[in-house]
Structure formats: C-alpha cells, structure tokens
Amino acid sequence: MAMTNHERVGKALELLKQGLGPFVEREFKSAFQDKAQAEMGRYLGDDRLNAKRPVAEWDASALIKIMWDAWNEVFRRTLGYAERSLVSEIRDWRNKWAHQETFSSDDADRALDSIERLLAAVSAGQSDEVRRLKQELRRLVADEQARGERRKSAGIAIEGHAAAHLKPWREVITPHADVASGRYQQAEFAADLWQVYLGEGGPEYRNPSEFFRRTFLTRSLYKLLVGAMERISGKGGDPVVQLQTNFGGGKTHSMLALFHLFSGASAKELPGIDEAMQDAGISSLPRANRVVLVGNKISPGNPVTKEDGTVVQTLWGELAWQLGGRKAFAKIQKDDERATSPGDRLRELFNEYAPCLILVDEWVAYARQLYDQGDLPGGGFETQFSFAQALTESARLARNCLLVISLPASDTATSPHALANSEEVGGIRGQEALARLRNVVGRLESSWTPATAEEGFEIVRRRLFEPMRADHFKLMDATAREFADMYRSQQQEFPPDCRESDYEKRIKAAYPIHPEIFDRLYTDWSTLVKFQRTRGVLRLMAAVIYSLWEKGDRNPLIMPANVPIDDTRVRDELTRYLSDNWKPIIEKDVDGPDSLPLAIDGEVPNLGKFSACRRVARTIYLGSAPITSAANKGVEDRRVKLGCAMPGETIAVFGDALRRLAQRATYLYQDGNRYWYDTQPTVTKLADDRAEQYRRSPDKIAQEIERRLRADLARRGDFPRIHPLPGSSADVPDDTDARLVVLGIDCPYCKERNCAAEQAAVTILENRGNTPRLFRNTLIFLAPDKQRLQDLDESLRKFLAWESILAEKDALDLRPHQVKQAEAQLKTADGTINARLPETFQWLLVPGQSKPQAPVTWEAIRLSGQDALAVRASKKLKSEELLLTSFASSRLRMELDRVPLWRGNHVEVRQLVEDFARYLYLPRLRDSSVLLQAIDTGTALLTWEKDAFAYADSYDEDAGRYRGLRWAQMVSLTDAGASGLLVKPEIAKQQMEDEGGKQPEEEEEKGEEGAITGGEPPEGDDEGGGGPKPPKQTQPKRFHGTVDLDPTRVGRDAGRIAEEVIAHFAGLVGASVKVTLEIEAEIPHGAPDHVVRTVTENSRTLNFTNQGFEKE
Prior knowledge:
By secondary structure, the chain is α/β, with parallel strands linked by helices. It folds into six domains: about 5-150, no CATH class; about 170-175 and about 465-680, no CATH class; about 190-440, no CATH class; about 690-875, no CATH class; about 885-995; about 1050-1100, no CATH class. The protein has a five-stranded mixed β-sheet, sandwiched between helices. Helix 38 (about 785-805) packs antiparallel against helix 40.
C-alpha cells in the first residue's frame, strides 16, 4: 500500500528523534557537566513524563522544544541561525502532524527537507534515510505532474515568429536521456563525495568515465588535476590544496574529479585527460590509495565498527583505516582510543602507503561539534587543530602524497552568501573552527579558484546535452549570426554590449541557451541565499529543457521569454530560493491560466499573436525577482527586449506589451526605464521609500529609541536608580546607591578594544562632570550591540514609515485593504522592535578590581531572557554576585579583615558605606540598607567574636573607651549617615572584661552635675567594679605630603590625588585641609612676549597669591 504524506512525515519525525537524542544529551553535558540532567528537567517544565526517561526515549516534540528553549545557553555555540530557523519550522510541522492535519505534497516535501537538513547539521546518519523519503516523494510528484502536463492543452510552448530558415534548437542538439525524459532527480545535480566513496549515487557521479564525459575541465580544474598528477607521480606539485569558494561553488565536484582520476581507471576511459597528462609529464595514470573524510557524515560522538571488526573513533582513525585497513589503523590505534593527535605517525603512514590522496570535505561541520573538555570519542576541540597541523605538515613531508581540503569561503555579514555560509559553518563554535582551520591550512595551501561564468556555459551544456554532431555546428553558427545581426542592425533597441562581436561568440558558447539567461542566473540569482551557482543553474535549466522538450518547443534558442514559468517544476525551481508569497504573485501578474499577461494577450490580438505580454512578464521576472532589495533594482527596457525578441519579429510589439503591463499589474514597479516585480503592492513601496528617508533623520530614530527605553526601564528590577541615555557624565549623580547607566546608540559595544561603549563607560566611571567621581563601585553600564543596532535601526525606520502612512491615510487616499495592510505592518514592525530592543541592548559592562593596587578591568556580560532590561540585568548580576541585595555579616567581617577596612580598632558605619560605594575591589551593594542589615544581623550573632563584630555608639578619646558598646544583640540601624562604630571583637571583649563583663543596655548621658545614672560609679573610678581606665591612645594630628606631577597630565594626576588622598580628610570632623600648587618653569631660551602676557593674565584671573617671571 502506498505511503501517505502524513505517514512520511511521521516516519521522518521518528528518524529525527533517533538522530537528535544523542546530540541533545551530548550538548547539555558539555554545557552543564554534572548538572545536565537537572537542567534538562528544568527546561522540560511540566513534561514530567519525558523528564523521568533517558534522552534516547524522548519524543521528537520534547527534543525540538528543549532545543528551542535552551538555544542561547546550549546550542548556539554549535549551530547557527539557519539551524535555529529549522528547529522553529520543524516544531510547527510536528504540531500539525500530531493534530492529524493533512499534508500536501509541497508541505511534506518542505517538512522532510527541513528534518534532513537539521539531522545533517548534527552529523546524524538518519539524514540519509530522510533524504530517501524526500526523493521518493519528489519522484511521485514529478510523475504525477508530468501526466497532468501532458493532459493540459495549455501546455503548448509559446511559439515565437522567428525567421523560418532558423533551425529549432531541438533539431540541432539533444538533451541527455535523463533530462529529456524527466527521469533526473534534482539531488543528482548535488555531487556527494561520501556517496561516491560508498559506491552509491547515479552513474554520472559514480562511474569515472561517465563523470569525465559530463565534466568540463575549467582552467582551475585543469590546473588542479595537472598539479595532482605531478604530486602523486613524484614530479613536483603542491602537497596541500585548499578549495575555498562560496556555498555551491564546485568544491565537491573538483574532489570527485581527483577521486576518479586516481581510481585506477585507464586514461582512455577518461575524456579530456590526455592533454593534462602531457602537461604533467606522465605517460600513464598512477593509482593512489584514496581517503575520503566528509565531516557531516562522520559523527564525533558515535564510534564506527568496520566490516573487519575495527572500531574507529576519530578522524585520524578513519583516515588510517581507509588508507590501509586494520594494519594501518594499528599504527595509530592508541591515539584513536585516547583521542590524541597522532603527530608524525601520519607521515610514516603516508610514506608506507604512497602514493596516496586524502580528500577532506565539511571539516568545519565536524569540528564545531567538539568540546573543549575532549570527552567525546572524536576528541576535543583543540586536539582537532593539532591533528590539522600534523596532517598538513605530514602531507608536505611525505612522498607522493596529496592533501585536498575544502573550506567555506570567507563572507562578510553583508555578503549575499553570508546566510548560506552560515548553514555550512554553523554558530559561534563553527566560526571559530573555520578561522582556526584556515590559519592552519592557509600556511601551506595552494591557490584555487572556481569556474568563471563563461566556463559555466560549457559546464551546463555538457551536463544537460549530448555532444553536438559535427554537421550541426554550421546550424548553430547560422543562428548565432542571425541574432548578432539583429542586435547590430537595431542597436538602439538593445543593450550596448550586444553590438560587440564577442556577443556572437557568447551565443555559440551558450547554445542552445541564450546568454541572457546565464547572465541573469549567474549575476542576479546567484546572489540569493542557497542558490548554488552551477548547481542552481543545472536544477533550473534541467526543468526548463524537459518542459520545452515535452511541449515540442521549436524556437531557435531558449530565451528568457521562453522559460515556462507556468510549468510546475520550473515555477518551483524559480521560487524555492524566494519567499513563499511569490507563487500567488506569479499566478496573478507573471504567468498562469488566470494571469494578467495572458489576459492582455487575449484582449489585444497584435500582442496575442506573439504572446508578447507573457514573454515580457517572464523576462522581467527572471531578471528582477532575486534583486528586489538591491539599490539598482529592476531590468532596463532594452534588456527586456533582449530577452524576448528573435530575428524576424517586430520589436516594437514588446515595447507596447511592456507599457500595457506596467499600467495594470499590481506587483510590477517602474522607475524610469527600469521594471521589476515585487512581493508588495504600491503602498509597501511607499513605506519602503519613507523608511529610506528616515536614514537622513537619525534624531527621530534616537527619540523613538529613548521613548521605548524609558518605558521599558520603568521596571527597575533591583536597581535603586536608572539613568537612561545620559548626555554627559554630569548627568549621573555621585552617591552611594547602585545604579544602571544605559548608554546611547552612539556608544555601541563590540569586541574590539577601546570600543565606544567602553570609552563612554570609563569617562562616566572616572568623572562626574569636571570633578573626579568618588563612588565608582555603584555604577553598572548597559550598552547596545554594534551589529544588532543595524537591525534595530531598520525596524524603527519601518515602524516610523508605517506610522506616518497611517497618519496620512486620508491624504494618501488609501483603500480599506491598504489601510488594513498598513495597520498589520505597523503592528508587526512594533513587535519586531520590541523583540530587537532587548536583543540590541544586551551587553552589561561591569567594572572591577581584583585587589586595591590592580588596574580597573571591564567584564562584558551578554544578557538573555524575557524580562524587562533592568530586571534581566539585575537578575544576571545577582546570579554572578556582581550586585548584592543581601550581605552576610560573616562576609562583612571577612572584608573588614581582608582589605583591611578597620581604621585602627574600629570603623565608622558611614565610612563603611562610603568604602563599599567607592572601591571596586569590594562587593557591589544595592544600597546602604544592605550593609546596615548585615551590621544588624552581625551584632546579634552569638558567635560575634569569630564571625562578626561589636557595635558602639561612639568612642570617647579622652576616656579611651567605647560608649554604648553592644554585642550579641540586635542593633536596628536605619540611617547610613548616623554616627556609629563597628568595633573589633578583641577590643570589645577587652573593654567588657575591664568593665566587669557586663553589657550595658543603654548608657545614659551625663546630667548637668556630671552624674551617671544607673548606680554605676563615675568613669575612671578604680572602685566600684568599673575596672582600670585603659591607656589613652594618641592619634596623629597633622599630615603633610609633597608630590611631583607630570606637567603634561596635571589635570589627571591632580584629580587622582584629590580622590585618593584629600577626599579622606574631608570626612573627618573638624579637619581643615590646605592644598598649595607650586609651579617652577625653566626656560633656557627665554619666554616670548605673548607667553609672558598670557600666563600673567591667567595667573591673576585664577587668583595666584604669588607669581612672576625672572630674567636671571
């Protein structure tokens, strides 16, 4: 019985469960060590059933949920944004499956594809089984579509009115049988090195002869093969070659060419190799021992048992076993078991089994799954790069050994391939692995470049078409000449580059496909994420050629206007790289039974004769759909005609069709002579334009950010004070309460040294306005992320644009559906800002010192969570003990002794409050009440002598004793500025013993006659049990100091002296401080008159008591 789509998705989810379980368990153990099980239970929440089971028994729903919820804390180190999107999408598919909803073939294909990609990203072997399910589904769908297409009368190809003497392309060149019959699978265009190594895959990749028959040797590939033959034959050549291109740039295909070249096949069986052998200086192809290592097919967490019983754990173990079986593996068996790099043993292996070829693909996908601890069978993260270095060095030193490594290309965040490379590379750990591997391999690698666009013509032609018969070349030449003559004779109608003689050569090189198709695919479509250049072109053109061949197309060339977008296969290929909302746009405004172009062609016979509107619409779509976000979007009218017109046709008819279409199409935009399709009607274009205008109004963006920040910061968390976006350091008060300072968008944080956020934070930390800041240990800074600011700016501009459109909806005469759309877009933009604001303001900058003499250091902490900014900041700081809302009295005693904070035998409470607010090497307290509470509980401890302290109201210097001395009882302090002392326990105990061991409940103040109430004898009386009077301690009464200042840094040094020295005297009762600044300047060549005048005037203004210049 045939399997339903619902059953296919269910089977894929079961395979997902089997593949994800070990990965999830491994990642949690790496992140939380012994606490992994508890953390998994915490993330599972109410799912107690799964929480009690081993991870291997969890269902797919629990695995996907925990990956989503724990992404930032666990999985983002290994996986990237592309995999996060897959997790979200699979979660929706699983819910749909669980609720017994039906799956269309498109839905099932998408679900299977997403599951396969996620499994491949974690190197789970179940991805191959899911891929087989997907291919089986696609084959069934394709067969059904083919039957339907043959039944449709509308399936007849668009026939142009080209000159009758031009031969149709189908009579000149024939597609390969699999392309002409539609039996090809789209996956066949994706070279799979591992499949070929296992002896699987289609014959065009598995069979060396068939592979080279369909492979065009580009200059780079030719050079690579020649160098490889030289190296394997011992005639020179580079020992290490790095293949580095963008996603889908032909790296794997080049590795397959090397794999087949040294397979032992005869040179006669490999077309095109003879000339390369001559250049390499060899007469016969050497056979080499071949090793294939594909990182996403080998799991670092699951050892593999080979057919001979050998258990392989590491990459180097796999390498040795492939090289020489059990015997070769035995040489590095201990290194494999211990997961340590084999070092120079690799060189010994290479020499023993020379000549040898080592091919390494998807290495980053393997390395990013390793951990620093090295607790996986595959080894540790660092060990992998030791192996990489040993591998490259050994290949260089060994005889007749060639090492070929493919790595993803280096793309910036704004590169069109950045997201595609993110899928190849993964998350933070993947980026680090790529950088490390480049560093190791880059020292020895030989340069290599992918195929050029011109070489791409021949690559596609060989893969899709049979070789052309010798007597048909003249027919091809005649077609090329007719087209070139038309472009030259009516040059005002076509782009300038078509007039050149080289364009005729390009037509011949691309035959039977018009060069404009290749230009659009290689120039525009290749900028799309996942459109893999040659592979993407092959996929699309195979579908186009099959459709046109089936429909009996008789045009002389396959033009952009002939691309059958109404064919399901072709439309799917053209939309698979775009957002889903393109399909209804195509059906409405581009091509289809109910499309506007078909309707216009039916209404205007002159256009319908040529199917002019359909041809124009197809050409515009092919040239504009992938570049809707480009600055110079759209297709010129002359290039539209280039994609439509054929010799013998009236070119003006396409101009008329273009004009009519632009007037009526909903999604077709025009700017001068440029035309493009977009996914939004005109009101969205207006919003985009306004959003661009807001780039020139940064003040409005800043105001909106400030408004939203202040609203968010209304929830303060544990911060007594919050200061959003201070204009200067003077805006941040200098007192003893902890405060969160939120830096503005002009002070973003990045990993670079001395970034704007750190500079701003240092300025506020060191100063308040023009005076040095005293209470530095109260400040914590929240800064925006430099990269995320761009996304926030974009969402803010969109929000303001939609807001302005709705405010002017009457003036703009918006229709109801446009108003509704604008309201929905405004709500979406608002939600995006709410999500991006905390993602942007995510960096806490926390100053600190390890000890009093140490320099100030800054710790950058990334925030996460769902709370308000200040709430999540205070939670994070509390968890890291960087902000204390409670303080143990024993810890207070520890700090008093450690620093020490005692001033002699005691310390004033208000002095302690200032100390904790001032010095960065002390714990940061929320406010003074935290310290007062610690004092209250400390004085009440029965173990106060060891763990706390005593408390006194004051110290009588004349009597040499503490007044109101208390211990082992609660002291309720509420005013941090009130007088009060903490007393060393030993001193308090001494006074207690001297005074008879009694603790006064409360000491009365002396009356007018000096009597003391309570029946106690006068202080100092040796009789009456008061004890002897303690010896009177003398305290220093004066201080003086002299210091030399750096004349170039007087302000800095003077400010530091004021903070670290003079400020300490300011808090002493009755103390007076005098500071004198003395200046002596020696001027060997004499001071100029203007200097004498300026200095003299400034000295008077600054109230110098004595100043003057001397001539001697």
